[in-house]
Amino acid sequence: MAQRRTLPPLNAVRAFEAAARLEGFKQAALELNVTHGAISQQVRLLEDRLGAPALFRRTTRRVTLTAAGKALLDEIGPALDRIANAVQRHRATGGDVPAAVLRVNALATFSMRWLLPRLKRFRDEHPDIEVRLATSNEPIDALPDVFDVVIRGGPDAFHGFTSRLFLSERRLPVCSPSLIAKLPLDDISDLAPHTWLNVSSMPRLWHDWLVQAGQPRLSPAETLTFDHFFLSIQAALDGLGVAMGPTALIGDDVAAGRLIAPFPDVSLPARSYFAYVPDGSEAGSPTAVFCDWLEREGWPTAGNAASAP
């Protein structure tokens, strides 16, 4: 059982703090809207409760703090400030507990294609946690700011960080249903009359996939090259051609029928997604809660991707 607090009368504490801060009983009486005698009486009550030494030296014209009074003011003043601030916050928020801020840094394409569409679910489940998302492709040890969670490919090891796998993926061709309606893709050789959509940072994706598919000499009618995966995926959605789609980032579009994977049995392995968190993150903290949620959201997709050949 918690020990009961031993507190002096709070009116006496308020009277003492005002008189000590304003250096006079008259000034304290004006601030608290009471009489000079009431302040004097409350201060005397506090001194009687505390015992010697006295808190003020009294002369005919003025009162001054004693050393004991100064020491008490140094403790009581900040305590009353905290009470006042707590009351102000309560009034401002209607009693709601301020949300804990969770700083997350994630890859740009991953954020657009996977994380952002799911963040509302996290907010609905955890309204007490405010996610502040920044996007970057920089390595963890090159980030200029400190983050609670950094989402990158892996597995990698970074000093001072623990990693948690939450999403795996593979890569395979995808296109819009309207494109297949014009140029069917019943066999891998049917890719030849199509436009192939490339990503400049991974120029060998199509070559490596064709080797995996047993058609290394196949070539397209045309190519389009983009500098980000999300652009090539958007181009595929718009019917501009066939893209090499990362399964984690196009899964929602395939499930909704906006994209089709005509050759689901042939795919390339890719790096998995990991949440990297600073060492020492406690169980039950906003960081741990967010990482647990990432795993629940990611593992069904991870299992599907990992089972592909």
TrEMBL record:
List, alphabetically, the InterPro entries matched: LysR-type_TF_proteobact-type, LysR_HTH_N, LysR_subst-bd, WH-like_DNA-bd_sf, WH_DNA-bd_sf
- Write out the similarity annotation: Belongs to the LysR transcriptional regulatory family.
The organism encoding this protein is Rhodopseudomonas telluris
Per its record, how is this protein called by name? Answer: LysR substrate-binding domain-containing protein
Q: PANTHER family from the entry?
A: HTH-TYPE TRANSCRIPTIONAL REGULATOR, HTH-TYPE TRANSCRIPTIONAL REGULATOR TRPI
The record ties this protein, via CDD domains, to: PBP2_GcdR_TrpI_HvrB_AmpR_like
All copies of the HTH lysR-type domain together span 8-66
Instruction: Name the residues that span the membrane.
Output: none
Q: What does this protein do?
A: NodD regulates the expression of the nodABCFE genes which encode other nodulation proteins. NodD is also a negative regulator of its own expression. Binds flavonoids as inducers.
Sorted alphabetically, which keywords does the UniProt record give?
A: DNA-binding, Transcription, Transcription regulation
